[in-house]
Amino acid sequence: MSGQDGETYTSGASMSSKTENIENVTRSLECHRMILHQSAETLDQFPALRDEIKKVYDADRHSEMKDQSAKQLIMDMEEDYPKPENQVWTKSKLEQYLPAHRSVPTTKRNAEDEIKYIAAWFKDDGLKMVPETKWVTGCLPKNPDYDSSLGIKDPKPDFTFGLEPRKPINMTSLPTKQVELLMNICRGIDHPFMVIENKGAEESFAWAAIQALRDGTAMENAQLELERLAGEEHKVGALKSFVFSCAWDVDIARFYVHWIEKPATGRLIFHMNKLGTFNMDEKHKLKEFRRHGHNIMDWGVSEADNGHKKRCRDLEAKATATEKSKQTTNTPSKGSKASKPPSTPKTPRNQKS
Question: 304-334: b or e for each residue (b if 16 or more CB lie within 10 Å)?
Answer without folding.
Answer: eeebbbebbbebbbbbbbbbeeeeeeeeeee
